[in-house]
Structure formats: C-alpha cells, structure tokens
Write a sequence for this structure.
C-alpha cells in the first residue's frame, strides 16, 4: 500500500465522518425542540373528553402524556412510586400510562420521565390520594367489645374509626381493603366515619341499622311459627345482636312448604308500615338488608321473601338462593330492592304504596332437602345512600 493511497483513504474517511456529523446535526435540527423531550400537556384518555387537561389525577387513573420526542422513555415516576410503561403505548408524541395505586412515602407532586440516554424530564403533577372508601360491613350488628369488619379501600394508616355517638374503636387489624376494629362502649346506631391523613369518609351504611325494620320478632307478630323466635339464647344458640331473633332448626324436604315468619298487615301490626313509600316508588334507590347466621350451611332448597307487597302474597315471590355459609357468625345480606321488585312484577305483583302496611313472609319452598339451622334478624329496607 503506497503512502499516497493511505493519505487518500484517510482523507476520504475524514470527509465521510464530517458528512455524517453534519447530517446528524441537520436531523437533530429538523426534530421538534431540537430533539429534546418536552411535555406539552396531560389529558384523560377518553376521546370524548380529550380536551380535558389535567394537572393531577387519582390513583389508578389512566392518563395520556402529550409532547415531543418521548419515544425513548424507559422509566416514569410519580412522587417516589414507579409507574409501568408499555412500549406499545409510547410514541414520539404520546405516553399512555396508569398512575400508580400505591401511596408514596415522599410527596413531591412531581412526575419524572427517564430516557434511554439517561436524561430526565420533570413535570409538575399531583397524584390525588384517595380518601377512605367504605363499601360494606361483614355484619352491621356487632355487640360492644366485639370485632367489626369494615370493607372498602384506601385504608391508609394512621387512621381512626369513629362510630355514631363519637366513640372511637380500637384497631385490631388493617389491610388495604379491610379494617377490623373493636366496637367501643357507647357506639350508637348510625354511620361509621373513617379518617386518614388523606381525608375523612362517613359511610352510607348504618352500624346497628334500626331504620325501617319490618320483621324483627321484637315482639313476635304475625301468623307463623312463634316457636322459631329466640328470646333468651341458651348454650348452642347464636348470640343475640338486636333483641329477639328467628332460628329455624329442622330438616326441610324438597318442595316442603315451610312458612317461617310473617303475615298480612293486620296480623303483623304497625311494623308492616315501616317500608318507606319512596322505596315502593323508587326501589332502585334502596336495599333489602337482613342479618343471617348459618349454623349449618344453607346449601339446598330456596328461601322465598315477601317484602313490600300491598295486594297479598305471591307464591312466586323473590327467591334468595343458596349456597350461603357464614360458618356460625352473624353476617349482613344486602340485596338491591329493585331486583326484588322486578321479581314480583314478573310474577304479576307490581309494587304499590299502601297506607295499611305490607304483606311479609319468609317461606322455604324449593327443590332439594335442607338440613336447616339458620338464624335471621332485622329485615329492613334502607336507602343506598345516607340521607
């Protein structure tokens, strides 16, 4: 290889290198913002609300980050919590990501995007930590000193549980979606309030809910089976949770007609008028609730429930179906009242307001033999949302 050839080769290589640098520089100059990542705005992902711009979002919300030169994003952080990036949801102009649900240890109200070249883009963005959500209680009736179980979400410690009457319970156990708390002396019927540093929530449900009870056996009224009423629980009986309760302890054969409780309005008395007119007119706004304790599993047959019928009994009334097993503990059953109303209407018995009261019946009548040992109390129709 001659000296002249080597010089020519080096000259060509140098020229190509300069050309590449010039081209790279031109390409960078051609990119928006000279190729530097930038966030223009953040919005919701629903196309119908695409004009709704965000300065913050709640835990678990799906958001769209809109900007330029975002295609090389490798990590995203909200406060000190890392979000999960999906490559197919990343383009040069958009990143679609879910806000992490876990609460941060340090709140900075900043979002950080880290790119493959190590650069970081920071943007002001608030993650709105949810206040407590109360969805249900395992049992809405728990004696003083007993442990109540509250279900919901966003139970971030430290927290307090306050019962109606202003008495705080003692925490036994706290999980993400469940609180166990000892019921204090002086707890009254009414909503439960849970407070964290992120907010305070009063429940729609009532603890020891005493509203609109239409079947309780305190005292016994009606046509059927006063012998099922337990007034003084003895050994082997479930504990009383609100005065007398009904316990059905017998073998019930398939399609055997076993009336447990109830009667027409004139036999039930004033309690038959306790279902609100608004529940009859707008059943979708109400629940039927009652407490049940299955000493033996409810695993066969059918319990038919009459509640709110003004014109008489209907043998095709609402059916509460097995299986259900509380394993010897009191639990609250919650049934949307519009489901019950719809079952009556499909059987030819439309709900109608009655100033004389309503027919009531609990009737076991279905296929399959049931070795029945079940207790019931506090049948009531209550609003889904607190007044």
């Amino acid at each position: 290889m001659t000296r002249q050839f080597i010089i020519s080769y080096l000259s060509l290589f140098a020229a190509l290198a300069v050309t590449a640098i010039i081209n790279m520089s031109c390409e960078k100059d051609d990119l928006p913002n000279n190729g530097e990542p930038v966030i223009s705005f953040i919005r919701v992902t629903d196309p119908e609300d695409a004009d709704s711009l965000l300065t913050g979002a709640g835990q678990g919300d799906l958001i769209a980050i809109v900007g330029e030169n975002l295609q090389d994003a490798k990590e995203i952080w909200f406060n000190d919590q890392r979000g999960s990036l999906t490559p197919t949801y990343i383009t040069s102009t958009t990143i679609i990501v879910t806000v992490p649900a876990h609460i941060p240890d340090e709140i900075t109200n900043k979002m950080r995007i880290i790119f493959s070249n190590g650069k970081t883009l920071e943007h002001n963005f608030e993650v709105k930590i949810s206040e407590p959500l109360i969805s249900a209680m395992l049992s809405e009736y728990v004696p003083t000193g007993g442990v109540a179980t509250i279900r919901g979400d966003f139970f971030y410690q430290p927290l307090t549980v306050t019962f109606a009457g202003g008495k705080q319970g003692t925490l036994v156990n706290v999980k993400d979606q469940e609180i166990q708390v000892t019921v204090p002396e002086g707890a009254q019927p009414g909503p439960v309030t849970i407070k964290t540093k992120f907010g305070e929530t009063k429940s729609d449900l009532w603890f020891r809910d005493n509203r609109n009870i239409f079947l309780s056996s305190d005292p016994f009224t009606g046509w059927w089976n006063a012998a099922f009423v337990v007034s003084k629980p003895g050994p082997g009986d479930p504990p009383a949770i609100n005065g007398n309760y009904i316990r059905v302890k017998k073998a019930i054969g398939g399609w055997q007609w076993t009336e447990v409780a109830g009667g027409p309005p004139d036999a039930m008395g004033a309690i038959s008028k306790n279902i609100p007119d608004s529940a009859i007119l707008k059943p979708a706004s109400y629940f039927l609730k009652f407490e049940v304790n299955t000493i033996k599993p409810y695993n066969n047959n059918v319990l038919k429930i009459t509640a709110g019928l003004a014109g008489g009994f209907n043998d095709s009334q609402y059916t509460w179906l097995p299986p259900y097993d509380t394993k010897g503990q009191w639990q609250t059953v919650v049934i949307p009242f519009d489901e019950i109303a719809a079952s009556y209407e499909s059987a030819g018995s439309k709900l109608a307001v009655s100033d004389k009261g309503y027919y009531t019946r609990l009737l076991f009548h279905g296929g399959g033999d049931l070795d029945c040992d079940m207790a019931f109390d506090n049948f009531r129709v209550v609003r889904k949302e607190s007044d």
Notes: The domain at 133-207 is CATH 2.60.40.10 (Immunoglobulin-like). The two ends are 97 Å apart (CA to CA).
